[in-house]
């Protein structure tokens, strides 16, 4: 009979993500995670097999969280162009300050390196794009690909904020996306 887990995987993976964000993805080892969460290295090896699987599990856990936050933002936003802005602002505020955003880019690098993580990112982008497009369904003149256009504008907006992180990221995103909607759909 297997022993009961003293700490659920969700707590272990949250600790792994914290190590990765604070010290970089390369700093995640069984030893560093053991120190962070209080479980033994051998217990962690039993759960996650090797460092690659541990890192993948932590990043998949992060994708699960982003999926849930995105679904919540979509569910509460009106199906209007302003609602599309609201969705993207809602998930932008979770980046935090410039240091957290910069560390997030290192995590994104890890997502690009792994085909399963890339697939999660692609699937998330499809859901996000479709939700944004749905916000423009009743808007005359909206391009068919407005969801991907706006999501791309949003990602660029986040990058430019990173070079000059003055003020809260959510206010920066809102200003820029409202300007984007006004440029693409004058009079909206």
TrEMBL record:
Keywords: DNA-binding, Transcription, Transcription regulation, Transferase
Superkingdom in the source lineage: Bacteria
Keyword Transcription regulation appears in the UniProt entry: yes
Pfam families with a match to the protein in the record: TetR_N
HTH tetR-type domain location: 6-66
InterPro entries, per database record: Homeodomain-like_sf (IPR009057), HTH-type_TetR-like_transc_reg (IPR050109), HTH_TetR (IPR001647)
GO MF annotation terms: DNA-binding transcription factor activity; transcription cis-regulatory region binding; transferase activity
DNA-binding segment(s): 29-48
Name of this chain's protein: Macrolide 2'-phosphotransferase I repressor A
Organism for this UniProt entry: Neorhizobium galegae bv. orientalis str. HAMBI 540
